[in-house]
Structure prediction request, 369 residues.
Amino acid sequence: MKYCPHCGSQVRETAKFCPSCGQVLNGASPTQSTPDSNQIRGIYDSATAKLNHYTGEEGAVKVNIGDLFSEVFKHHTKDEANAIFIAGTKTTTPALADVSDEWAKPWLFSRILLGFLLAFAVLLYMVDSFNNNNAIPGLIMVGAFAVPFSGLVFFFEANAFKDISLFEVVKVFFIGGIFSMVVTLFLYQFVTFSAASQILDVLTLKDSLAIGLVEELGKVLIVSYFISQLNVRHILDGILIGAAVGAGFASFETAGYIYNAGNDLFSVAIIRGWSAIGGHLVWAAIAGGAIMIVKRNQPFKFSQLLDTRFLVFFVLAVLMHAAWDWDVTILGSYYLKLILLIILAWIVVFVLMSAGLKEISHLKQQAHS
Prediction:
């Protein structure tokens, strides 16, 4: 048995670097890992360990991205796709003993995204080459739905419990997405923006925080309703329901932005399209998973939203949303800011997904005992 002298984590006898803290172990050459990579790894491990504490678990969260998406580039049959889509019914929901606590390897979402992109390219060609304005509504809807809906399918595939049907997910996507926008518009009636925002169309930090709080709260209220209505019990279920509401919100909001873009219709569709992978879809998924951390098997109560474990993740979603809208850049680049925020959002999601997978192990242990 060998332990890291820096953080105390158990490591392999032949390991030259600690997988938890990234520090060089005895006998390893310091030149094999740069200080910068060790520092980044150390920050990541420390941050995910602290977040993981609020899920009820301990330790840094490790995600093998290559393994997670390893099935994307492999051939899959229609029968395999159909088997994914029919999950969540009484006859297709697996028993707890058959639920895997290993990371899922989603792939179907990539085929759906590819189909959306192909449709978008054809519609764009119709508008650009044939001046066919009848294709513009289709272009708007496909551009707005492509990434959010494909991302939703990713979360559907990643739900190891497979206890929510595609019908329910699509229902939450449409109804939840629309009503979360209605609730948000109602909440906006209680918010006053600065003169810079109203006259110069520049969002200050205060304005951005107000937007983040209002829109995330609007989605949380709808996510809470569907979590209660569907009576789900697991973290992965909450993540899926949150993603469904967030994907619907993102799709309808983006469609409106593209519609009002005028001559910039194509550029707005592309920018808001690719960046949707780290926006409302993921922020609402974070909130949904956080709700389930405090709810578990209990009936949902609004008092649960005052639990520190939920508030930590909710505040993170609000801050990421605010930073997204705030008129600042990183190293002079607006896109670099978006990319960093997307990475950060997915790190938080992976922490919650990891807790959801560990929940499966805990439930199996309880069932055996």
